[in-house]
Amino acid sequence: MNSSLFEDGPPSLLPKDLLGPGTAVLAGFALAAEEDLLSALKRVTEQSPFRNMVTPGGFRMSVAMSNCGELGWVTDHTGYRYDHIDPRTSKPWPEMPMEFKDLASSAAKEAGFAEFKPDACLINRYEPGSKLSLHQDKDERDYTQPIVSVSLGLPATFLFGGLKRTDTLQRIQVVHGDVLVWGGPARLRYHGIAPLRDGTHPRLGPVRYNLTFRKAG
Ligand code: MD3
Ligand code: FE
């Protein structure tokens, strides 16, 4: 008998602790707020549009990015950093919508991280073929703070390694509405996204969005 049948929350194909200590897979957690999240996302990216940033090594990223909140993650030929100003508009990043803040802090709480107050939300846009190479998120000040990720649109294969780049990778499928939380012993684990497969999401078209909420400053 599958005991998850008797738990609260949406049905899930994935156990919540599938990815190990410090992680939580909250399948479908964002679905109830879907329309609010999508309209907030549209408002934000009308103010700070998606753009393909260039890495310090000179490569144009296949993932297009924007940010909202007090701080935004940027990369250019000089390096990676968080900045208060969007270099494209020369204005502060758009304010983090309340719908975003509420979702991120309730997901963190569900995963055991009380009082998560993100000051940065990196917004990634993937089209078929876009990928995110294996990396660690190390540009934030306080690694005791978790990261919350919200997947919208096309499914993706999430690659999850260990604390060393060469550690073996777990692969899990994330779909529209899934929320993942990473903290504690998982906070510095390597991760990435495999090249997005062709497809069309019924609500969003041929695209995947990922929101990652961070306490950067
Ligand atoms: C595990 N984004 O923006 S989110 C990123 O789907 C990033 O766009 C991916 O990795 C995406 O940096 C994956 C999941 C994620 C984010 C941060 C993590 C997983 C993490 C930090 C530590 C461990
Ligand atoms: Fe990351």
Structural class by helix and strand composition? alpha+beta
Q: Strands of the largest sheet, in order across it?
A: 1-12-9-14-7-2
Main sheet properties: 6 strands, antiparallel
Span between termini: 46 Å
Q: Helicity level, as a percent range?
A: 10-25%
Number of strands: 14
CATH-defined architecture: Sandwich
Strand content: 25-35%
Number of domains: 1
CATH superfamily: Alpha-ketoglutarate-dependent dioxygenase AlkB-like
Round the Cα radius of gyration to an integer and report it: 16 Å
* CATH fold description: Jelly Rolls
What is the string of SSEs from the N terminus onward? Answer: EHEEEEEHEEEEEEEE
How many alpha or pi helices? 2
Q: pLDDT under 50 segments (min length 5)?
A: 1-7
Ligand roster:
N-(carboxycarbonyl)-S-(naphthalen-2-ylmethyl)-L-cysteine, fe (iii) ion
Mean pLDDT: 93
Give the topology, please.
Elements: E1 23-26, H1 34-47, E2 64-68, E3 72-76, E4 79-83, E5 85-86, E6 91-92, H2 98-110, E7 120-126, E8 132-135, E9 147-153, E10 156-160, E11 170-174, E12 179-182, E13 191-193, E14 208-214
Antiparallel strand pairs: 1-12, 2-7, 3-4, 5-6, 7-14, 8-13, 9-12, 9-14, 10-11, 10-13
Nutshell version of this structure?
This protein is of the alpha+beta class.
How does this model look, in words?
- This protein is α+β, with helices and mostly antiparallel strands.
- The chain has a single domain (2-214), classed as Alpha-ketoglutarate-dependent dioxygenase AlkB-like (Jelly Rolls, Sandwich), CATH 2.60.120.
- It contains two helices and 14 strands, in the order E-H-E-E-E-E-E-H-E-E-E-E-E-E-E-E.
- A six-stranded antiparallel β-sheet has the order 1-12-9-14-7-2, covered by helices on one side.
- Strand 5 and strand 6 form a beta hairpin.
- It is globular.
- The relative contact order is 0.21.
- Mean pLDDT is 93; it is low at 1-7.
- The structure holds N-(carboxycarbonyl)-S-(naphthalen-2-ylmethyl)-L-cysteine and fe (iii) ion (FE).
- The site of N-(carboxycarbonyl)-S-(naphthalen-2-ylmethyl)-L-cysteine has 15 residues, from strand 7, strand 9, strand 12, strand 13 and strand 14.
